[in-house]
Each structure stands twice: as structure tokens, then as C-alpha cells.
From TrEMBL:
Residues 8-77 form the DnaJ homologue subfamily C member 28 conserved domain. Pfam families: DJC28_CD. It comes from the Bacteria. This is DnaJ homologue subfamily C member 28 conserved domain-containing protein. Residues 131-162 are annotated as: Disordered. InterPro entries: DnaJ_homolog_subfam-C_membr-28 (IPR018961).
Length: 162
């Protein structure tokens, strides 16, 4: 019985392929999305949150913390001082520790963040900003010179000639 069902399914797929029903599918001939990224154990969860447009306020604490850890590097680059970096990391680590003491489902492993690594990242970003500021501004584009008018030599008209 299962062989007949499989052969029926195969026959319908073959007929659809031959009639061209699979030709204009979106993404045809393109690589699978995310094939070049490193493997992420929680890809399905991130994809679900993105696809469904779930707001961060609606997320369970474990997923919210994981997202905060993921976005921390970008946030740290914009902070004004090393002290603010350390305070931000300490606040996040406090939240992570509270979650680790009283976890709630879904049980997503969230590790504390190394403050020294984040400070090093901040310093590198700061150095990049200083380097960009030190570079001389590109010379202004030359303004187009006004065209010279070349006067045509014309007949000089005497008064009364017309």
C-alpha cells in the first residue's frame, strides 16, 4: 500500500515538474538563506522571532537575555566611556545571573559576558573613530569653471546701416 502511495506521489511530482509548475518558484536557482553563516543552535528560534515580528517585550526572559547578549557588541561600540561599558556589562551579567538562579522555560543557555573583552572591543572601536577623525578630509571637488565667452567677430554696423 505504501509503495503505491509513494509511486502516486512521485508520479504527481514528475508530472508537475514536466508541466513547469516548479519553474517560477521564489528563490529558484538561489542558494539557501544562511548557508554561508556558521552553525547557530538557535537559528530556528531567531528565524521564528524575525518572521513573526515578535516584540522583545513579549519574549520569555531567556530569549530576551540571549538577544541582549547578541546585540551587546554593537551597543558597546557606541558607548561614551569605559565606565559606561563596564556598567552596561555588569547590569546584563546581573540579569543573566538572576535568570540562571531561577530559570524559566524555554531553557536557553545564556552565559555571562566578559567585561574585559567588551572593553577591548570598545577601545578598538574608539581607536577606529579617532583614526577616521585624524584622516584629512578629502579635497573639495573642483568647482566647474565658468565658460569663457568667445565673442564672435561680427560686422561692425555703422549708424544708419540697416
Amino acid at each position: 500500500m505504501s509503495d503505491r502511495i509513494e509511486s502516486l506521489i512521485d508520479a504527481r511530482i514528475r508530472a508537475a515538474r514536466e508541466s513547469g509548475e516548479f519553474d517560477d518558484l521564489p528563490g529558484a536557482g538561489k542558494p539557501l538563506p544562511g548557508h554561508a553563516q556558521p552553525h547557530d543552535e538557535q537559528w530556528w528560534l531567531k528565524e521564528f522571532v524575525r518572521r513573526e515580528g515578535i516584540d522583545a517585550a513579549m519574549l520569555p526572559p531567556s530569549i530576551h537575555l540571549a538577544r541582549q547578549v547578541e546585540r551587546l557588541a554593537d551597543e558597546v561600540r557606541r558607548l561614551p566611556s569605559e565606565q559606561r561599558v563596564r556598567e552596561t556589562v555588569a547590569d546584563l551579567n546581573r540579569e543573566i545571573l538572576d535568570y540562571q538562579v531561577r530559570p524559566s522555560p524555554p531553557f536557553v543557555p545564556v552565559r555571562r559576558v566578559d567585561a574585559d573583552a567588551m572593553v577591548a572591543l570598545w577601545r578598538a572601536a574608539l581607536e577606529e573613530r579617532f583614526a577616521a577623525a585624524r584622516q584629512p578630509a578629502p579635497p573639495p571637488a573642483p568647482s566647474p569653471r565658468p565658460r569663457r565667452r568667445w565673442f564672435r567677430r561680427g560686422r561692425s554696423e555703422a549708424p544708419g546701416d540697416a
